[in-house]
Amino acid sequence: MPDTLQPGGAPATTRPGQERFVSDVDETGLGAVDAVADESAPASMWGEAWKQLRRRPMFWIAALLILAAVALAVAPGLFTRTDPRFCELSNSLAPASAGHPFGFDKQGCDIYARTVYGARASVSVGVLTTLLVVMVGSLIGAIAGYFGGWFDTLLSRVTDIFFAVPFMLAAIVVMSMFKSHRSVFTVVLVLGIFGWPQIARITRGAVMSVKNDEFVTASTALGAGRWATMFRHILPNASAPIIVTATVSLGSYIVTEATMSFLGIGLPATIVSWGADISAAQSSLRNAPGILFYPAGALALTVLGFIMMGDVVRDALDPKTRK
């Protein structure tokens, strides 16, 4: 039975049931817990973000919605073989039947085929407008934030001027001038002209927050030029808010295109789009509400997917939201 020492140094016998046993460190497993894997590289910002994203059900739901919209836009022939422009008045407002699950609209066109092919125009406008806005806005914002001085003053005032113009109103006014030359690229150009200020302002703030960090100073000390430093080091580290804003804005551009097509100043009638189908369905809303429901539902789900993706990406890239 183990002995202990009293304060005076005299040994004392431990009573039965009060023995103390100390296990060896190798038997407790604490060594494995405290061990550090030196060969493992530290996770990057995008690696940590991916760990956060794949654990969230909202990310997978948004990804499925976006993949479905992209698949419809890229390969609509995989989902239907019906020509969306083939219409017969004899089928006007006919209910669903074999091969026509959504029925027919007032002009006798297959609603399912038009819903499938309508994704191409809407998604194309959203993606191309977002790319144009990101390229223009990121460049202007990065130059203003990194170089400062009169660059920042001039570009910031130009950005404020565009901010003062209502986005939707300006797009409607300019598109009304292209009645005979309307196309996907026309809509993209008009939306891009008035959509870049938001990205520019966000990029400027992000660049100003990182341009004085140590890695920028090290890059300059090693002889890298200011333009090389901006494109190689500053913009990649300031890209998180740009990506989040662009993802959310993509859905907004799809809605804007649908709104202009609904008003008759967006895409021409020869191009199948959800906005044009929603506009054509309002005359038959009481008799056949499904004509409006299907293109409007496809539009809503697509926009919802991009907005949800922007939310989860923002939470994953923001360290303050990580638990």
Automatic annotation (TrEMBL):
One Pfam family in the UniProt entry: BPD_transp_1
CDD domains given in the database record: TM_PBP2
Spans annotated as Disordered: 1-20
Alphabetic keyword roster: Cell membrane, Membrane, Transmembrane, Transmembrane helix, Transport
Main location per the UniProt record: membrane
Occurrences of domain ABC transmembrane type-1 (ranges): 119-310
InterPro entries named in the record: BP-dependent_transpt_permease, MetI-like, MetI-like_sf, OppC_N
Keyword Zinc-finger carried by entry: no
Membrane topology: Multi-pass membrane protein
Keyword Membrane applies: yes
Annotated family: Belongs to the binding-protein-dependent transport system permease family.
PANTHER family xrefs: ABC TRANSPORTER PERMEASE PROTEIN, OLIGOPEPTIDE TRANSPORT SYSTEM PERMEASE PROTEIN APPC
Name recorded for this polypeptide: ABC transporter permease
Biological classification of the source: Bacteria, Bacillati, Actinomycetota, Actinomycetes, Actinomycetales
